[in-house]
Design goal:
The protein has 454 residues and is α/β, with parallel strands linked by helices. 50% of the residues lie in helices and 14% in strands. The structure holds adenosine-5'-triphosphate. The modification 4-aspartylphosphate is found at residue 54.
Length: 454
Protein backbone atom coordinates (compact mmCIF):
# COMPACT_ATOMS: atom_id res chain seq x y z
CA UNK A 1 0.00 0.00 0.00
CA UNK A 2 1.25 3.53 -0.76
CA UNK A 3 2.36 5.71 2.19
CA UNK A 4 0.17 8.56 0.99
CA UNK A 5 -0.78 10.61 -2.05
CA UNK A 6 1.17 13.78 -2.79
CA UNK A 7 0.49 16.50 -5.34
CA UNK A 8 3.60 18.50 -6.27
CA UNK A 9 2.86 21.92 -7.80
CA UNK A 10 6.00 23.50 -9.25
CA UNK A 11 6.80 25.09 -12.58
CA UNK A 12 10.36 23.72 -12.93
CA UNK A 13 10.15 20.48 -14.95
CA UNK A 14 13.56 19.21 -13.77
CA UNK A 15 12.66 19.69 -10.09
CA UNK A 16 9.24 18.08 -10.63
CA UNK A 17 10.87 15.02 -12.11
CA UNK A 18 13.57 14.76 -9.46
CA UNK A 19 11.24 15.27 -6.49
CA UNK A 20 8.71 12.85 -7.97
CA UNK A 21 11.33 10.12 -8.16
CA UNK A 22 12.52 10.79 -4.55
CA UNK A 23 9.00 10.63 -3.24
CA UNK A 24 8.04 7.56 -5.25
CA UNK A 25 11.19 5.93 -3.93
CA UNK A 26 9.83 6.54 -0.41
CA UNK A 27 6.58 4.79 -1.27
CA UNK A 28 4.33 7.79 -2.02
CA UNK A 29 1.93 8.06 -4.92
CA UNK A 30 2.82 11.31 -6.65
CA UNK A 31 1.18 13.51 -9.26
CA UNK A 32 2.62 16.79 -10.45
CA UNK A 33 1.23 20.03 -11.82
CA UNK A 34 3.01 23.07 -13.29
CA UNK A 35 0.44 25.70 -12.33
CA UNK A 36 -2.69 26.24 -10.26
CA UNK A 37 -5.19 25.37 -12.98
CA UNK A 38 -3.57 22.03 -13.72
CA UNK A 39 -3.36 21.42 -9.94
CA UNK A 40 -7.12 21.98 -9.63
CA UNK A 41 -7.72 19.62 -12.54
CA UNK A 42 -5.44 16.99 -10.99
CA UNK A 43 -7.22 17.20 -7.65
CA UNK A 44 -10.58 16.44 -9.23
CA UNK A 45 -9.34 12.91 -9.92
CA UNK A 46 -6.54 12.51 -7.36
CA UNK A 47 -7.47 12.91 -3.71
CA UNK A 48 -4.08 14.08 -2.44
CA UNK A 49 -3.25 13.70 1.26
CA UNK A 50 -0.63 16.45 1.05
CA UNK A 51 0.39 19.24 -1.30
CA UNK A 52 3.87 20.58 -2.04
CA UNK A 53 3.45 24.09 -3.40
CA UNK A 54 5.85 26.48 -5.05
CA UNK A 55 4.63 30.07 -4.59
CA UNK A 56 5.90 31.46 -7.87
CA UNK A 57 3.76 29.89 -10.58
CA UNK A 58 2.86 30.72 -14.18
CA UNK A 59 1.21 32.55 -15.79
CA UNK A 60 1.40 35.44 -13.23
CA UNK A 61 4.49 34.31 -11.27
CA UNK A 62 2.87 36.33 -8.49
CA UNK A 63 3.21 34.68 -5.08
CA UNK A 64 0.26 36.71 -3.76
CA UNK A 65 -1.92 35.08 -6.40
CA UNK A 66 -0.81 31.63 -5.21
CA UNK A 67 -1.34 32.63 -1.58
CA UNK A 68 -4.90 33.65 -2.40
CA UNK A 69 -5.54 30.12 -3.70
CA UNK A 70 -4.20 28.49 -0.54
CA UNK A 71 -7.61 28.25 1.10
CA UNK A 72 -8.73 25.87 -1.67
CA UNK A 73 -6.15 23.32 -0.54
CA UNK A 74 -6.29 23.73 3.19
CA UNK A 75 -8.30 20.61 3.96
CA UNK A 76 -4.97 18.79 3.56
CA UNK A 77 -1.50 19.87 4.75
CA UNK A 78 0.30 22.20 2.35
CA UNK A 79 4.09 22.50 2.45
CA UNK A 80 5.46 25.61 0.77
CA UNK A 81 8.61 25.31 -1.35
CA UNK A 82 10.44 28.58 -1.05
CA UNK A 83 13.58 30.39 -2.16
CA UNK A 84 15.46 32.43 0.46
CA UNK A 85 14.07 35.69 -0.90
CA UNK A 86 10.57 34.37 -0.28
CA UNK A 87 11.00 33.71 3.42
CA UNK A 88 8.47 36.36 4.49
CA UNK A 89 5.98 35.01 1.96
CA UNK A 90 6.44 31.53 3.37
CA UNK A 91 5.69 32.87 6.83
CA UNK A 92 2.58 34.58 5.44
CA UNK A 93 1.57 31.24 3.93
CA UNK A 94 1.84 29.60 7.34
CA UNK A 95 -0.31 32.35 8.83
CA UNK A 96 -2.85 31.48 6.13
CA UNK A 97 -2.90 27.82 7.17
CA UNK A 98 0.01 26.16 5.34
CA UNK A 99 1.61 23.40 7.43
CA UNK A 100 5.29 24.25 6.93
CA UNK A 101 7.82 25.54 4.45
CA UNK A 102 11.08 24.18 3.14
CA UNK A 103 13.85 26.10 1.40
CA UNK A 104 15.09 25.44 -2.11
CA UNK A 105 17.39 23.82 -3.06
CA UNK A 106 15.44 21.12 -1.28
CA UNK A 107 17.27 18.69 0.96
CA UNK A 108 15.61 15.30 0.21
CA UNK A 109 16.15 13.98 3.77
CA UNK A 110 14.60 17.06 5.28
CA UNK A 111 11.72 16.91 2.83
CA UNK A 112 11.07 13.29 3.82
CA UNK A 113 10.93 14.22 7.53
CA UNK A 114 8.64 17.22 6.99
CA UNK A 115 6.28 15.18 4.81
CA UNK A 116 6.17 12.28 7.24
CA UNK A 117 5.34 14.53 10.18
CA UNK A 118 2.70 16.44 8.23
CA UNK A 119 1.00 13.26 7.07
CA UNK A 120 0.95 11.62 10.49
CA UNK A 121 -0.40 14.79 12.14
CA UNK A 122 -3.01 15.05 9.39
CA UNK A 123 -4.02 11.43 9.93
CA UNK A 124 -4.34 11.97 13.69
CA UNK A 125 -6.44 15.11 13.14
CA UNK A 126 -8.72 13.24 10.76
CA UNK A 127 -9.14 10.30 13.11
CA UNK A 128 -9.80 12.57 16.06
CA UNK A 129 -12.38 14.51 14.04
CA UNK A 130 -14.06 11.26 13.03
CA UNK A 131 -14.18 10.13 16.64
CA UNK A 132 -15.60 13.46 17.75
CA UNK A 133 -18.25 13.28 15.04
CA UNK A 134 -19.29 9.85 16.23
CA UNK A 135 -22.89 10.48 17.24
CA UNK A 136 -22.63 8.00 20.08
CA UNK A 137 -21.08 10.16 22.79
CA UNK A 138 -20.18 7.28 25.09
CA UNK A 139 -18.10 5.39 22.56
CA UNK A 140 -16.46 8.55 21.28
CA UNK A 141 -14.89 9.01 24.68
CA UNK A 142 -13.15 5.69 24.18
CA UNK A 143 -10.05 6.76 22.29
CA UNK A 144 -8.09 4.27 20.18
CA UNK A 145 -7.81 2.98 16.63
CA UNK A 146 -6.17 -0.39 17.32
CA UNK A 147 -8.01 -3.58 16.36
CA UNK A 148 -8.85 -4.43 20.02
CA UNK A 149 -10.33 -0.94 20.53
CA UNK A 150 -12.35 -1.12 17.32
CA UNK A 151 -13.68 -4.53 18.37
CA UNK A 152 -14.49 -3.18 21.84
CA UNK A 153 -16.44 -0.26 20.36
CA UNK A 154 -18.46 -2.61 18.17
CA UNK A 155 -19.24 -4.90 21.11
CA UNK A 156 -20.28 -1.95 23.29
CA UNK A 157 -22.68 -0.71 20.65
CA UNK A 158 -24.21 -4.17 20.29
CA UNK A 159 -24.49 -4.95 24.00
CA UNK A 160 -25.45 -1.52 25.33
CA UNK A 161 -29.13 -1.52 24.28
CA UNK A 162 -29.75 -4.89 25.99
CA UNK A 163 -30.06 -5.29 29.76
CA UNK A 164 -27.53 -8.12 29.88
CA UNK A 165 -25.08 -8.03 32.81
CA UNK A 166 -21.53 -7.27 31.82
CA UNK A 167 -18.23 -8.10 33.45
CA UNK A 168 -15.31 -5.98 32.28
CA UNK A 169 -11.93 -7.55 33.00
CA UNK A 170 -8.38 -6.52 32.24
CA UNK A 171 -5.29 -4.79 33.63
CA UNK A 172 -5.53 -1.69 35.78
CA UNK A 173 -5.87 1.63 33.95
CA UNK A 174 -7.05 0.14 30.65
CA UNK A 175 -10.39 1.94 30.64
CA UNK A 176 -12.76 -0.53 32.31
CA UNK A 177 -14.74 2.31 33.90
CA UNK A 178 -14.78 4.30 30.65
CA UNK A 179 -16.19 1.23 28.90
CA UNK A 180 -18.81 0.73 31.59
CA UNK A 181 -19.93 4.35 31.33
CA UNK A 182 -20.17 4.02 27.56
CA UNK A 183 -22.38 0.95 28.00
CA UNK A 184 -24.60 2.94 30.33
CA UNK A 185 -24.78 6.05 28.16
CA UNK A 186 -25.75 4.06 25.08
CA UNK A 187 -28.41 2.09 26.93
CA UNK A 188 -32.08 2.97 27.46
CA UNK A 189 -30.97 3.85 31.00
CA UNK A 190 -28.56 6.53 29.73
CA UNK A 191 -30.53 9.43 31.24
CA UNK A 192 -30.77 7.67 34.63
CA UNK A 193 -28.00 7.51 37.25
CA UNK A 194 -24.70 5.66 36.79
CA UNK A 195 -23.64 4.76 40.32
CA UNK A 196 -20.06 3.62 40.74
CA UNK A 197 -18.98 1.63 43.82
CA UNK A 198 -15.35 0.74 44.46
CA UNK A 199 -15.84 -2.52 46.36
CA UNK A 200 -12.28 -2.57 47.73
CA UNK A 201 -12.30 1.03 48.95
CA UNK A 202 -15.29 0.73 51.33
CA UNK A 203 -14.49 -1.03 54.63
CA UNK A 204 -16.17 -4.45 54.79
CA UNK A 205 -18.39 -3.53 57.77
CA UNK A 206 -19.69 -0.41 56.00
CA UNK A 207 -20.28 -1.95 52.59
CA UNK A 208 -23.67 -3.41 53.47
CA UNK A 209 -25.11 -0.15 54.77
CA UNK A 210 -23.53 1.77 51.90
CA UNK A 211 -25.13 -0.52 49.33
CA UNK A 212 -28.48 -1.26 50.99
CA UNK A 213 -28.94 1.87 53.07
CA UNK A 214 -30.26 1.79 56.63
CA UNK A 215 -33.23 2.84 58.70
CA UNK A 216 -33.21 5.14 61.69
CA UNK A 217 -31.98 3.32 64.81
CA UNK A 218 -30.40 0.41 62.90
CA UNK A 219 -27.12 1.07 64.71
CA UNK A 220 -25.52 3.73 66.85
CA UNK A 221 -25.32 6.93 64.86
CA UNK A 222 -28.16 5.97 62.46
CA UNK A 223 -30.27 8.96 63.41
CA UNK A 224 -32.36 8.97 60.24
CA UNK A 225 -33.24 6.70 57.30
CA UNK A 226 -30.62 6.75 54.56
CA UNK A 227 -31.02 5.20 51.11
CA UNK A 228 -28.14 3.06 49.87
CA UNK A 229 -26.34 3.09 46.56
CA UNK A 230 -28.60 0.35 45.16
CA UNK A 231 -31.62 2.63 45.63
CA UNK A 232 -29.75 5.57 44.13
CA UNK A 233 -29.02 3.48 41.05
CA UNK A 234 -32.68 2.47 40.65
CA UNK A 235 -33.66 2.80 36.98
CA UNK A 236 -30.00 3.22 35.96
CA UNK A 237 -26.75 1.28 36.14
CA UNK A 238 -24.85 0.03 39.19
CA UNK A 239 -21.14 -0.25 38.48
CA UNK A 240 -19.30 -2.52 40.92
CA UNK A 241 -15.63 -1.79 40.42
CA UNK A 242 -13.02 -4.26 41.73
CA UNK A 243 -15.76 -6.75 42.51
CA UNK A 244 -13.06 -9.36 43.25
CA UNK A 245 -12.38 -7.45 46.48
CA UNK A 246 -15.94 -7.79 47.78
CA UNK A 247 -15.93 -9.64 51.15
CA UNK A 248 -17.54 -13.12 51.05
CA UNK A 249 -20.45 -12.32 53.44
CA UNK A 250 -21.37 -9.36 51.21
CA UNK A 251 -21.19 -11.59 48.14
CA UNK A 252 -24.00 -13.74 49.59
CA UNK A 253 -26.19 -10.68 50.09
CA UNK A 254 -25.49 -9.33 46.62
CA UNK A 255 -26.35 -12.71 45.13
CA UNK A 256 -29.76 -12.58 46.80
CA UNK A 257 -30.42 -9.13 45.33
CA UNK A 258 -29.49 -10.34 41.88
CA UNK A 259 -31.68 -13.43 42.16
CA UNK A 260 -34.72 -11.71 43.61
CA UNK A 261 -34.42 -8.08 42.55
CA UNK A 262 -35.29 -7.10 46.13
CA UNK A 263 -33.44 -6.26 49.34
CA UNK A 264 -33.89 -4.92 52.84
CA UNK A 265 -32.17 -1.81 54.15
CA UNK A 266 -30.03 -2.53 57.24
CA UNK A 267 -32.44 -2.71 60.17
CA UNK A 268 -35.42 -2.39 57.83
CA UNK A 269 -38.46 -4.67 57.53
CA UNK A 270 -39.80 -3.36 54.29
CA UNK A 271 -38.75 -5.24 51.18
CA UNK A 272 -37.49 -2.83 48.52
CA UNK A 273 -37.64 -3.53 44.82
CA UNK A 274 -35.12 -2.19 42.35
CA UNK A 275 -34.67 -2.21 38.63
CA UNK A 276 -31.08 -1.72 37.58
CA UNK A 277 -28.46 -3.00 35.23
CA UNK A 278 -25.35 -4.40 36.81
CA UNK A 279 -21.92 -3.88 35.29
CA UNK A 280 -18.94 -5.23 37.23
CA UNK A 281 -15.23 -4.81 36.67
CA UNK A 282 -12.09 -6.43 37.97
CA UNK A 283 -8.41 -6.71 37.20
CA UNK A 284 -8.28 -9.97 39.17
CA UNK A 285 -8.71 -13.39 37.65
CA UNK A 286 -12.17 -14.28 39.03
CA UNK A 287 -12.12 -18.00 38.05
CA UNK A 288 -8.84 -18.20 39.98
CA UNK A 289 -10.42 -16.54 43.01
CA UNK A 290 -13.36 -18.97 42.69
CA UNK A 291 -10.92 -21.93 42.72
CA UNK A 292 -9.24 -20.53 45.82
CA UNK A 293 -12.60 -20.14 47.56
CA UNK A 294 -12.27 -16.35 47.69
CA UNK A 295 -15.12 -15.63 45.30
CA UNK A 296 -18.46 -17.42 45.17
CA UNK A 297 -18.94 -19.46 42.01
CA UNK A 298 -22.72 -18.80 41.97
CA UNK A 299 -22.14 -15.03 42.14
CA UNK A 300 -19.48 -15.25 39.44
CA UNK A 301 -21.95 -16.91 37.04
CA UNK A 302 -24.61 -14.32 37.94
CA UNK A 303 -22.46 -11.27 37.23
CA UNK A 304 -20.56 -12.71 34.30
CA UNK A 305 -23.22 -12.20 31.63
CA UNK A 306 -21.05 -11.05 28.77
CA UNK A 307 -17.36 -10.62 29.60
CA UNK A 308 -15.44 -7.82 27.91
CA UNK A 309 -11.67 -8.14 28.12
CA UNK A 310 -9.54 -5.01 27.85
CA UNK A 311 -6.04 -5.03 26.35
CA UNK A 312 -2.83 -3.68 27.92
CA UNK A 313 -1.57 -0.50 26.25
CA UNK A 314 1.75 -2.20 25.42
CA UNK A 315 -0.20 -4.54 23.12
CA UNK A 316 -1.90 -1.70 21.24
CA UNK A 317 0.83 0.88 20.99
CA UNK A 318 -0.74 2.43 17.91
CA UNK A 319 -3.32 4.00 20.27
CA UNK A 320 -0.64 5.99 22.12
CA UNK A 321 -0.37 8.98 19.70
CA UNK A 322 -4.13 9.43 19.60
CA UNK A 323 -4.44 9.15 23.38
CA UNK A 324 -1.63 11.71 23.79
CA UNK A 325 -3.35 14.06 21.40
CA UNK A 326 -6.65 13.59 23.23
CA UNK A 327 -5.14 14.26 26.68
CA UNK A 328 -3.13 17.23 25.35
CA UNK A 329 -6.31 18.77 23.97
CA UNK A 330 -8.05 18.14 27.27
CA UNK A 331 -5.18 19.85 29.09
CA UNK A 332 -5.19 22.80 26.68
CA UNK A 333 -8.94 23.27 27.13
CA UNK A 334 -8.59 23.26 30.90
CA UNK A 335 -5.52 25.49 31.05
CA UNK A 336 -6.40 27.72 28.08
CA UNK A 337 -2.87 27.46 26.69
CA UNK A 338 -1.50 25.77 23.61
CA UNK A 339 0.88 22.90 24.13
CA UNK A 340 2.59 20.31 21.97
CA UNK A 341 5.16 17.56 22.31
CA UNK A 342 8.42 17.99 20.43
CA UNK A 343 9.61 15.02 18.40
CA UNK A 344 12.03 13.60 21.00
CA UNK A 345 9.45 13.88 23.77
CA UNK A 346 6.92 12.16 21.52
CA UNK A 347 9.36 9.28 20.84
CA UNK A 348 9.92 8.90 24.58
CA UNK A 349 6.17 8.54 25.13
CA UNK A 350 5.89 6.11 22.23
CA UNK A 351 8.71 3.89 23.41
CA UNK A 352 7.82 3.42 27.07
CA UNK A 353 6.05 0.28 28.28
CA UNK A 354 3.31 1.92 30.39
CA UNK A 355 2.71 -0.87 32.91
CA UNK A 356 0.01 1.38 34.46
CA UNK A 357 -1.58 1.62 31.01
CA UNK A 358 -3.70 4.61 29.92
CA UNK A 359 -3.97 5.98 33.46
CA UNK A 360 -0.17 6.14 33.75
CA UNK A 361 0.16 7.68 30.28
CA UNK A 362 -2.40 10.35 31.15
CA UNK A 363 -0.87 11.15 34.55
CA UNK A 364 2.64 11.33 33.10
CA UNK A 365 1.55 13.66 30.32
CA UNK A 366 -0.27 15.88 32.79
CA UNK A 367 2.71 16.11 35.11
CA UNK A 368 5.22 16.98 32.37
CA UNK A 369 2.69 19.44 30.90
CA UNK A 370 2.64 21.16 34.30
CA UNK A 371 6.41 21.79 34.25
CA UNK A 372 6.74 22.55 30.51
CA UNK A 373 7.43 26.11 29.43
CA UNK A 374 6.86 28.00 26.19
CA UNK A 375 4.07 25.76 24.88
CA UNK A 376 6.35 22.81 24.07
CA UNK A 377 7.01 19.64 26.07
CA UNK A 378 10.61 18.59 25.53
CA UNK A 379 13.00 15.93 26.87
CA UNK A 380 14.36 18.57 29.25
CA UNK A 381 10.92 18.76 30.91
CA UNK A 382 10.55 14.99 30.96
CA UNK A 383 13.97 14.39 32.48
CA UNK A 384 13.23 16.85 35.28
CA UNK A 385 10.49 14.51 36.49
CA UNK A 386 11.88 11.26 35.09
CA UNK A 387 15.64 11.32 35.54
CA UNK A 388 15.67 7.70 34.37
CA UNK A 389 14.75 9.06 30.92
CA UNK A 390 18.33 10.15 30.68
CA UNK A 391 20.05 7.00 29.50
CA UNK A 392 22.77 5.21 31.44
CA UNK A 393 25.51 6.80 29.34
CA UNK A 394 24.53 10.15 30.81
CA UNK A 395 24.24 9.23 34.44
CA UNK A 396 26.07 12.41 35.38
CA UNK A 397 23.16 14.43 34.05
CA UNK A 398 20.69 12.49 36.17
CA UNK A 399 22.85 13.26 39.19
CA UNK A 400 22.82 16.94 38.38
CA UNK A 401 19.06 16.93 38.03
CA UNK A 402 18.73 15.17 41.36
CA UNK A 403 20.92 17.82 42.93
CA UNK A 404 18.68 20.42 41.33
CA UNK A 405 21.61 22.07 39.55
CA UNK A 406 19.26 23.17 36.81
CA UNK A 407 21.61 25.22 34.66
CA UNK A 408 24.33 22.58 34.10
CA UNK A 409 21.70 19.86 33.84
CA UNK A 410 19.95 21.70 31.03
CA UNK A 411 23.24 22.37 29.29
CA UNK A 412 24.24 18.73 29.42
CA UNK A 413 20.83 17.70 28.19
CA UNK A 414 21.14 20.14 25.29
CA UNK A 415 24.54 18.73 24.41
CA UNK A 416 23.23 15.20 24.48
CA UNK A 417 20.17 16.02 22.38
CA UNK A 418 22.29 17.91 19.85
CA UNK A 419 24.66 14.95 19.54
CA UNK A 420 21.73 12.58 19.22
CA UNK A 421 20.07 14.73 16.54
CA UNK A 422 23.35 15.02 14.61
CA UNK A 423 23.73 11.27 14.74
CA UNK A 424 20.13 10.72 13.65
CA UNK A 425 20.48 13.19 10.78
CA UNK A 426 23.82 11.69 9.72
CA UNK A 427 25.55 15.03 10.20
CA UNK A 428 22.99 17.09 8.28
CA UNK A 429 22.73 20.27 10.39
CA UNK A 430 19.51 21.57 8.80
CA UNK A 431 17.79 18.29 9.51
CA UNK A 432 19.22 18.10 13.03
CA UNK A 433 17.97 21.64 13.70
CA UNK A 434 14.55 20.63 12.46
CA UNK A 435 14.49 17.55 14.70
CA UNK A 436 15.40 19.72 17.66
CA UNK A 437 12.79 22.34 16.81
CA UNK A 438 15.54 24.95 16.29
CA UNK A 439 16.49 27.18 13.37
CA UNK A 440 19.74 26.14 11.64
CA UNK A 441 21.28 29.35 12.93
CA UNK A 442 20.15 28.55 16.47
CA UNK A 443 21.74 25.11 16.27
CA UNK A 444 25.03 26.51 14.93
CA UNK A 445 25.16 28.97 17.83
CA UNK A 446 24.70 26.18 20.35
CA UNK A 447 27.33 23.98 18.66
CA UNK A 448 29.69 26.93 18.84
CA UNK A 449 28.82 27.77 22.46
CA UNK A 450 29.39 24.22 23.65
CA UNK A 451 32.40 23.81 21.31
CA UNK A 452 31.00 20.57 20.01
CA UNK A 453 32.88 18.64 17.38
CA UNK A 454 29.89 17.29 15.46
N1 LIG B 1 -9.60 4.33 25.64
C1 LIG B 1 -9.56 5.39 26.45
N2 LIG B 1 -9.87 6.60 25.97
C2 LIG B 1 -9.80 7.70 26.76
N3 LIG B 1 -9.44 7.68 28.05
C3 LIG B 1 -9.12 6.50 28.58
C4 LIG B 1 -9.18 5.30 27.81
N4 LIG B 1 -8.81 4.28 28.59
C5 LIG B 1 -8.54 4.79 29.80
N5 LIG B 1 -8.74 6.13 29.80
C6 LIG B 1 -8.48 7.05 30.92
O1 LIG B 1 -7.51 6.41 31.76
C7 LIG B 1 -7.84 6.53 33.13
C8 LIG B 1 -8.07 5.15 33.72
O2 LIG B 1 -9.23 4.55 33.13
P1 LIG B 1 -10.25 3.64 33.95
O3 LIG B 1 -10.44 4.17 35.35
O4 LIG B 1 -11.47 3.46 33.14
O5 LIG B 1 -9.39 2.30 34.02
P2 LIG B 1 -9.71 0.96 34.79
O6 LIG B 1 -9.35 -0.14 33.86
O7 LIG B 1 -11.12 1.00 35.30
O8 LIG B 1 -8.67 1.03 35.98
P3 LIG B 1 -8.72 0.23 37.40
O9 LIG B 1 -8.70 -1.23 37.10
O10 LIG B 1 -7.45 0.67 38.05
O11 LIG B 1 -9.95 0.69 38.10
C9 LIG B 1 -9.06 7.41 33.18
O12 LIG B 1 -8.65 8.75 33.36
C10 LIG B 1 -9.71 7.26 31.82
O13 LIG B 1 -10.43 8.39 31.46
Amino acid sequence: MANGRILLIDDEPAFRQLAQSWLQGSGYLVQTAADLDSARAALSGFDADLILLDLSLPPEFDPQHTLAALAEFNSRPVIILTGHAERQLALDAIALGAWDFIAKPVDPDLLAVVIKRALSKHQLDTELKQLKQHNTAGVARLIGVSAPMEAMRTLIQRIAPTDVRVLVTGPSGTGKEVISKALHELSRRGAQPFVSVHCGAIPADLLESELFGYVKGAFTGADKDRPGLLKLADGGTLFLDEIGEMPLPMQVKLLRVLQEGTFFAVGGREQQKIDLRLISATNANLPDLVNKGLFRADLYYRIKGITLETTALSERRQDIPLLLQFFLEQHMRLQGQSLRLDSTALSWFLQRDWPGNVRELKNTLESVAAVAQGGVISMADISLLHPEAVNAGHAELATDVNNLQLEPAVQQLEIRLIKQAMLQSKGNKSLAARLLGLSRQGLLKKIDRYQLSV
